[in-house]
Every structure is written in structure tokens, then in C-alpha cells.
Design brief:
globular
Length: 106
Amino acid sequence: MKAFLIALGLLALPSGAAESYRFISGQDVWHALSQDSMVVQGYLLGVVDSMKHQDRSCFTVPLSPTADADLYSGYLEYWQGKPIPEDAVEAITQAMSTLFPCTESQ
């Protein structure tokens, strides 16, 4: 099941082309995570897994038993009271790169 959810998240990743497929908006991610949606949790994990350590939006995944929950709550807290980008991938990478930035050695 988790592999399916990660694959679902990969559907929303931008391709090499200038346009990207938008499965869900950044605001939709926020609302669904605030309601513990397992599908959107899987979507967020898929985006995070595929986008981490990229030059333009480098971030790490916390190495802890609560890493998934840390990512979900981090997204919710980061965007609390702020305008969220329409593009969910942009919203996720912006939040993660601010909350869990790469270090010089990564």
C-alpha cells in the first residue's frame, strides 16, 4: 500500500517539460493533512522522496522514528496563516527546504 501511495505522489512531479501535471493544490495538501488523509500523506512522502537532495530545492528527510509525522506537521506549521502556492510540489519543496535544509556536506 505504501508503495502505491508513493507512486501516486510521483504522478505530480514536474517532468523535463516546462509544464507539470497538477494532481492536487498546495492548499488541498494542507487541508487533507490537517484531517490525517492517508492518501495525501502518501502523496507528500512521494514528492519528498523524489525531490530531496536536488540542487534547486535541497532538503533532507529527518532520520527518526517519527520522520513521517515530522514531515506532515512541518508542512502544516510552515504554511499556517500564509498563502500557499497553487502547485502542491512547489508548496511541499518550499516548506521542506526551509524546515529541513541540506547541509554543506550533503
